[in-house]
Amino acid sequence: MINSSTINFLTIFYSMFIIISTVLISLIGSETLQHDGKVIPMKGPLTMVVIHNNNDYLLGVHCKSRDDDHGFHILKKGGLYGWMFYVNFMNSTLYFCGFSQGQVKKGVFDIYKAVRDSSRCRNCTWEAKKDGIYGYGEIPHKTPLFYKWLM
Hints:
By secondary structure, this protein is an alpha+beta fold. The protein has two helices and eleven strands, in the order αββββββββαβββ.
């Protein structure tokens, strides 16, 4: 049997739950918080990715995420291509790039994956070499990530 004090407790509990949920959803939806009058974005650190072509051929690069398509770029030997972005609040940011040499597809690889890379680098450098692409972070002498070309 449910008495009136139990009903009052449940009513208060559900009311508080709805109020707290509404406030949290509003804050997350606005992606900002205020602290001492300054806006604090609800996003991760500013991160930079740079791809360097160290091959004797023109390297085609097409990078994108779920929300952003950076278009197709051709890098000559020594050429660089890069972009900056904020890692999202949920730490699920993912950028992937397709690489090609003329009509030959070299592969599509995860170039920035927040779960893997947020602690590895803020300035993430990728070097395209003869056998594949190597990913370097800020920690010297750490083994780089490596993706082998398909062709």
